[in-house]
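Hello, quick one for you while I still have it in my head. A protein chain has come my way and I'm curious about its shape. I'm sending you its amino acid sequence along with the backbone structure tokens. I'd be grateful if you could look everything over and explain what you see. Here's the protein in full, and shout if anything looks odd to you:
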Amino acid sequence: MPNSIIEVENLTKAYGRHTVLDDMTFSLPEGRIIGLLGPNGCGKTTFMKILAGLIHDYKGEALIDGSAPGIRTKALTAYLPERSYLSDWFRTIDAIDYFDDFFLDFDKNKALEFVDRFGLDRHQKIKTMSKGMREKIQLLLVMSRAAKLYILDEPLGGVDPAAREVILDIIMNNYAQDSTLLISTHMVSDLEQAFNHVIMFGHGKVLFNDSIDSIRQEGVSVEAKFKEVFGNAWEVD
């Protein structure tokens, strides 16, 4: 059995009277590509923000490689948020230089290769870019790190179908060896062939947490398993 890269115990997070994560306890194996699945509002983004050290007012414990989110885990973790966080006045090259200064595991040459592959302008300002271009820059920055854990929140969310294959190729072929990818997505069919482990959130709970092999032993796809777990409950409040 692989060691756990993420260990969660009695994790609870509420926004006012609305509990998003309800006393969750589970672990996730290291060295795997893990799909984090669930309907809108089920807490996927909240959980990822906790791991990334962006949310602190929660109860319980969430550990990455044995440590609570903080300075040590941020050095081990590459986080791709669902929404853009880059300053509007940054040019592409400024964003790359920023990551190069900030992260010891950042490969600037790889980032510049990605820029050329995406056909992006090194000197274009972020504020003049389309949503898709901004998301490509964020992705290339994250995937140019040699992190132990990659946390990718809806990496295909704003990507047009024509670019989706390129994005998937970059994600699957450029993460550091022996690292873990935690990927949230609504596009289950596009990513299920890449997953070797799946965890499903719903109603503040973990409804499924097991390997892809266990799903295949049932003779179903990940998408079919998702529909079995959630039925028609595409929105969880």
Remarks:
- The first helix runs from residue 44 to 51.
